[in-house]
Each structure stands twice: as structure tokens, then as C-alpha cells.
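Anyone able to model this chain together with zinc ion?
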Amino acid sequence: MKRKKILVAPSILSADFSRLEKEVKSAEKAGADLIHVDVMDGHFVPNITIGPAVVKSLRKRTALPLDVHLMISDPWFFLDDFISAGSSLITVHAEVCTLSLIKKIKAKLTANKVRLGISLNPGTPLKKLYKMLDLTDLVLLMSVNPGFGGQIFMPAVIPKIKALRKIFSRDIEIDGGITDKTAPLVIENGANMLVAGSYLFRAKNREQAIRKLKNG
Ligand code: DX5
Ligand code: ZN
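re: yes, here you go
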């Protein structure tokens, strides 16, 4: 299989929320391909973050696609709000979705020209996805337990990436603990999209940091 272009999606969870526009513009200028927005509901994960209003405001301030990661228990309830806020890609968690719900979500997203991603927590086996694979544009494999930025990469995700790449030719995105040390591991096993929060927003030179991630 031809190697896919590596895309970097800075997670604004690690940005300075008091100057979000500047942070997003700085990531854009540094070479980001998408902006990753971590939505948490305090229920699916033990933290609360961003809602549709912030996505809507960001949509006006960047030309980059908004990669919205819903770490919430009821993605269907909030789907319309995130679509109309201007999300480009919406990722839901397989742990809270049946196959029939994924079909419903997919139909609504397609009608609104929004791409679908499905995410798995580190502890959720790949087989949870098998029947959903044909429906999804992207699989996001968590390499930390979702809820917080700045956690340590869990290497157990590596065989999962490798196994998924054998059966799935679309986008594989990895989220959690991505740095210049862990990026090469995930890329060489088949990932083509990297979420990077703390590594990128803490870097003195963000352009160089993104370049390092892409060069694997
Ligand atoms: C974790 C979030 C991640 C997080 C990544 O629950 O889904 O997107 O912001 O942060 P880092 O790159 O610092 O691990
Ligand atoms: Zn995320």
C-alpha cells in the first residue's frame, strides 16, 4: 500500500484557552493540517471541556478542518449542534455506540458533508469495530485513557495499529502521548494522522515540532 501523507492535528486541549484564536493561528502557521477539538462531558470521561459554541467560534477564525473528538456518552443527542457549529470531521467512541447508531450517525453526517471517525479506548479490542469499518472514514485509536492531555503514550496501541492497517485502508489517527519519540513508532506501523497536544503547545518552536512529527 502506498504510504499516506502524514497529517498533524494539534489538540487545543493543551492550548492557552484565554487566547485561543492566537493559539490556533500559531498552529496553523506552524504547519498543522487540522485542528483537534476534544469535547468531554464529565460522564464518558472525568473531565469537562469544550462545547459546540467554541467550535462555532473557531470555525470563523481558521481555514483548517476542525477535527472534533466527542468523548461524550450521548453523541446522537449533540450531533446536530456539532454539525451546525461547523465540524469537518466528527469522531464518536465505539464504547457508546451500537452498529445501528453508527449507521444513523453516518447517514446524518454524510447528508451534511461531515466525515465520520470512530474511536477506541486503549482497553477496547479492535473487534468492536469490525462491522463498523465499512461505514467509517477514519479510526482514532487512543494511546492514553481519554480525559486529559499530557499523559504517557501506551505502547500497547502499536500492535493494534498494525492489525488495523492490514484490514483498513482509510485514515488511522492516534491520540495521546504523541511526541517526536513516539510518532515514528505509530507511523511505521500504519498510522497517518497524529494528534499532538502538550508536545506541540509546549514546544518553543512549533513549526519545528510539527516537522519532526511528520518526518517520523
Ligand atoms: C485525551 C485527548 C487528547 C489529548 C492529547 O483525552 O483526546 O486529544 O489532548 O494530549 P497529549 O498530546 O498531550 O497527550
Ligand atoms: Zn482527542
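DSSP finds eight helices and eight strands in the chain.
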